[in-house]
Each structure stands twice: as C-alpha cells, then as structure tokens.
Fold:
Amino acid sequence: MIVYEPAAAPATRAGEALVAGRRVAGRLFPYGTDAGAAALRFDPVEHRFVFRRPDVPIPAGPSDPAAWGQALSRVPSGPVLIGPCAPAEAVRGSYRAAADAAVESGRPVYLLDPEPDGIPAAAAGAAVALFSWRPGRPEASFPGLAAARSAGLACAAVFPLLPGWTSEPEFLDALMVAAKEGGAASVTALVPAADGEGRRGIVEARLGAEPSEGEGFFELVHHGDWFSRMGDRVAEVRAASARHGLAGLPPRPGGRRGRAGNAAAAARLEELAERLESDEHRAALLYAAVRWIDDSRRDLSAVAREGNFRKVFPFGPEIAGEAEAALQEAR
Structure:
C-alpha cells in the first residue's frame, strides 16, 4: 500500500539538466522524486534506476495550479520537466495542477510518465510526453504511451542501454516496435550511470524483472568492459531508430506562447550537441547557445529576416550558421 502525505509546498529543482539530449531549465516534482506507477523506474535525467521505498510516504504536492505557477516563476527561462506521475493522480491531482501551471505559463513542457488524469486539455501542441522504460517484456516497456498519444500529445520513448539486456539486437528491435505502435515519435537510448550505485541498480532491476538471471549478469555489469563500448552501441540504436522511422531525440515542445523559430533553432543545436558527446567543450558551447535562445524574449526568426541575427548572437559563425538555417526553415 502506498501512503501519500500532503506536501507543505511544491517541490521544484531549478537548474539546467539534460533529458534525452534536450535541455531543461528545471523540474517540478508533483509526487517527489520516489513517485511512479511502478516500484522501479529509470530516471532519464539521473540516468539511473529509482526504487520506490515501501516504508516511506510519498509527498503529494498542491492541487492548486496557482501554487505551482508561483513556484515555476522561480525557475529560469526555458523548458521545464514535470514528473513522474503517481497512481494517486485521479484522487490527488498534483501532477495535473503542475502541468496546468506550466502549460499556461507558455513555457515548453515535458511531461514525464503522465497518467491519463494528469494530462491537461491544453497540452496538445504545447507539451511533449516522455515515457521512461519499465523492465519486463518489450511490448509492455512504455505503459501509458498510447493513452498520451490518443490525447493528442507528441510522445517520446527513453530507455537505458544495458549490456546483455536492452542492447541486444532482438530485444532492441522489439522495443522499437513497441514504441512505434504506441505512437512514439522517437526512441532515445541513454548510457546509464556506471558508478557503484548505478551498477547495483542495474543488477537489481534485472533480477527483479527476470529472477533467472544471476551471476553471469552480475559479473558482466560489475566486472565487464561494457561501458567503454557504449558509444558504438548508441550509434547502433540511432541506426535502428531510423530503420523504424523514429527520430533519435524527442520532439522539442514550443510552448503555448513560444516562437516556432526559436524552438527549431534550439532543437537543431541540441541535436548537434548530442552527437558531440566526445567533444565536451564543443557540446557545452552548443548547450550554452541553446540557453541563450531560451532566454531570448525576441522572435529570432524576425531578427534573422532583417539580417541582424549574427550581430546579436554571441557565439561563433559556425554555430550561428546552424541556428540561422533552422530559423529560416521554420519560417
């Protein structure tokens, strides 16, 4: 039995983070960090498994969107990630309140693992639903995906690339099929955290889903040289996504009051940065440029039409050229 306790205030985390290659400026936690419909989930920001502790009550945030709107005003400009949701959403309404406030603010919004009751009516076209992978049969990997797509949301699937498990060709192909049939526009593979805690979580997740797996998987995860080969595996996933007609990164939401050109330029730079993981300096510059675009209150497509974009864009000509091309295409 899950016990929920009213939280004194909205739980938020301001500060830049990446979710499946997309930049977010902050997170809202309607049910705290241990929430979720399952006792086990993979967090796409922390890149590790989160285990719900059965003996710890889950805080339920306010059901008043105004409270979340006030909390959201303290989060820097840019997209916001909300979630995960919880089975009590139909009764508590905390996720819906946070999502309503975020959508109404005009920001780009990512909804992490939303329950149907938590999806705002105005979210279609303004928000993107992200579904994190659940261990088990591939066809049941992304519960809730089809319902969110039926509600008119653009949807994306995210999963951890695990050695001897999700990275195997047969499993990977079944995962792609499940995501596409559920209505996902993209599938993104994430390299899991490989510290001691992260590895323990991988083994515990596998044994929880498939108790017959034991010593061999433990040895592979804790003592195998799998982590150094993850770059090649990520490239294989991108190729598999393309074969199934799926994008490699989630769609970037524009927000209700967003500007299509700004969103397109930010998305283009994020996609370039995601492919330059080995060049950390270059990737950091690209994400800094994305931050600048998110902070801009101007319609950058109009600035580009006037021929002034490169005069105001404080980054090098190569990055400016990529952003300007996206602005022109969006126009």
Q: What stands out?
A: The mean pLDDT is 91. The longest helix spans residues 280-295. DSSP finds 13 helices and eleven strands in the chain. The longest strand covers residues 11-19.
